[in-house]
Amino acid sequence: MTDAPASFELLPGADDSPVILHVPHSAREIPPDVRAGIVLDDGGLERELDHITDAHTAEIAEGAAGLCGVAPWRFLNRLSRLVVDPERFPDEREEMLAVGMGAVYTRTTHRAVLRTAATDPGPLVERYFRPYARAMTEAVADRLAATGRAVIIDVHSYPTAPLPYELHGEGPRPPVCLGTDTFHTPPALLDAARKAFAGCGETGLDSPFAGTYVPLEFYSTRPEVAALMVEIRRDTYMTEPGGPAGPGLHRLATALAALVDAVHG
């Protein structure tokens, strides 16, 4: 097997910043050998990418970083989540396996076949998932060593109308959803997020998506690692599905920058 293309990038921030803006689902790139294992035709794949990609979230994070008083670090997935989803678990405990969306997806957002049932996820997990997880773990460890804490702000988006794959799509779909973890999301971080995004419309909690991303090495053991997921409803900043960004992008980048500044403060 040839070497894998760079599937992620860590963009340095200020030495004294504990914040990592994590952008896992913004890219559309799929290496040719991975594309060969996907059964959709080219048009079907482009439509699926329109639905599954958190479009423009990398630009929101980039805009926020440029507006912050103290620049945060940014960890970006440079490949589509159709290669691997770095925020899943590659084992049978992951509930998204029920809809074919574990670490390696076998179903689409509309529950059509993406890869055949005979697909072995192991090579993709070893080639892409594990290096990504190691690098993110190292990034968090580096912030802990440098500042005594790490704050992961996960930047996502979601469609205005629920897609068939969503397990909890019947709940509220506010302009901004804040995903939390009982161990890793301290009240002060959640309060800062609510204040920062107050000008972006209603802010909800853990609906339609809940939880946060924390590397397993620190999960439920290191309270110095704080985490919050920011889920942005796509109609607030772009044309759905998969269309261009609009003026809402700058407003959201400004709100995200305010959150980062509050964490630094």
**Order of strands, widest sheet:** 1-3-2-4-7-5-6
Alpha-carbon distance between the two ends: 47 Å
The poorly predicted ranges are none
General form: globular
Structural class by sheet pairing and helices: alpha/beta
Please summarize what this structure is:
The chain is α/β, with parallel strands linked by helices. Helix content is 30%, strand content 15%. The chain contains six helices and seven strands; from the N terminus they run ββαααβαββαββα.
What labels describe this entry?
seven-stranded mixed β-sheet; 265 residues; 6 helices; alpha/beta
Please provide a written account of the structure.
- There is one protein chain.
- The chain is an alpha/beta fold and 265 residues long.
- The protein has helices at 32-35, 42-52, 57-67, 122-147, 187-196, 248-264; strands spanning 8-11, 19-23, 73-77, 150-158, 176-179, 203-205, 225-233.
- Helix 5 runs antiparallel to helix 6.
- The chain is globular, with a radius of gyration of 18 Å.
Reconstruct the topology from this structure.
Layout: E1 8-11, E2 19-23, H1 32-35, H2 42-52, H3 57-67, E3 73-77, H4 122-147, E4 150-158, E5 176-179, H5 187-196, E6 203-205, E7 225-233, H6 248-264
Helix pairs in contact: 3-6, 5-6
